[in-house]
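Quick question, first post here. What does this chain look like in 3D?
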Amino acid sequence: MAILFGGKVKILTITQAQITERLRQSYHADTLPSTDGYVGRPAEQTVNPLKCAAVLIPLTFYADEWHLLFTRRADTLNDHSGQVAFPGGHCDAEDETLEETALREADEEIGLKAKDIQILGRINEVRTVTNYRITPVVGVFPWAYAFFVSTIEVARVFTMPLNWLADPKNYWQFQHPKATHPTIAYQPYDGELLWGATARITVNFLKTVLKA
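> Answer (accepted):
Ran it through. Tokens below.
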């Protein structure tokens, strides 16, 4: 399938091996082991108030194309209620790596088990206007999957095709007064609105794996 991405025609025949290699080539860690034993926690975490978080970018292949899995947060949550998000959350003291944070949160939120996920790599961090430093971890899981959703946190689990997400006609940018980068928002897909930090992480992932 031919699509437009960044003004160029792309054919989404990318393989899992190619995705892994492009993640490896593009990731630039600026982290060091910290004195509290959290391997991979940003070194600057000890000298500024940025809060550590990690999300899982769940990638799966079905119907002859790649899809990303998202959640819609429950309306009853205090923070970011009703918003589309990747599974993820705060780094806990017992998490030895950012991968462990992402996998733990995916299990807690939607019952996606670590044993069923193959980690492919990371993309570079995103800093949010709410003072989080988020590390996105990319993992592949098999489709179809029996999710066990924590309804306290998650209202819905759904996927979007990479073909659709990569088409620039489906999203736009605007300047948030508190943001240093333009805010990205997608057109509605299956009744869901993808925007903000999750949309930026999505576009960063696409730029990484679909680069020439």
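Residues 31-46 have pLDDT under 50 and may be disordered.
The chain is about 20% helix and 30% strand.
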